Amino acid sequence: EVQLLESGGGLVQSGGSLRLSCAASGFTFSTFVMSWVRQAPGKGLEWVSGISGSGDSTYYAASVKGRFTISRDNSKDTLYLQMDSLRAEDTALYYCAKGRVGAVAGTFYLHWGQGTLVTVTS
Amino acid sequence: QSVLTQPPSVSAAPGQKVTISCSGSSSNIENNYVSWYQQLPGTAPKLLIYDNSKRHSGIPDRISASKSGTSATLGITGLQTGDEADYYCGTWDSSLSAGVFGGGTKLTVL
Predict the structure, then answer these.
(1) Could A108 and B32 be called an inter-chain contact, meaning their C-beta atoms sit closer than 8 Å?
(2) Would you say B28 and B91 are in contact if contact means Cβ atoms under 8 Å apart?
């Protein structure tokens, strides 16, 4: 059974940093695209970042580019999101999502974690 | 404002049919695969459709989807109260080099 367990969320002041983790199990982690998708309270889904299976290719939404860094450790089956220069508008539930084998472009998300809440105070 | 445009809400009676549209452009929907997700209150999104029109395993055939040009459509027939949820379309945007989602559509089964 595929499991995605996010952690690392919490309360942080504007301008601060957080590192989210997503521990994966139940599948061959290194072969699948992984992404972070967030949802602000009462709002819709927003794609944040995606990374190829090898970690060689990374992509970011314009709203986080230059502030967030996605990475993965395939030896630990773990996905990360380093979030710097946090802003109030980054407040959201952050989901880890498992994509498909292949390119980040054109992926879809079959498995999702339950999310970790990030709250940025001004 | 989302790159993909969905109606904020749709509604229909039990047993009826509803369609949810997702409008984009040549840089996203027209040239990339579209997927659809259902999100029940307080839960993570659930994949319904991938690669424009392929139903994920376990999704009933009363749920279907299609794509034409820069638009995609999700259809649900035989509506049930359990279908009440938020629905999102998603795809890749080749110009942005980023994933994109629609703003979401709240389905109400009257």
Answers:
(1) no
(2) yes
Question: Considering only CB atoms, which chain B residues are within 8 Å of A4?
Answer: none
Residues of B in contact with A44 (CB under 8 A): 2, 86, 88, 101-104
Q: State the pLDDT at residue A103.
A: 87
Query: How far is the C-alpha of B77 from the C-alpha of A66, rounded, in Å?
Result: 44
Question: How far does the CA of residue A6 sit from the closest CA of chain B (Å)?
Answer: 12
Q: What is the pLDDT of residues B2-57, one digit of tens each?
A: 899 999 999 999 999 999 999 999 999 999 999 999 999 999 999 999 999 999 99
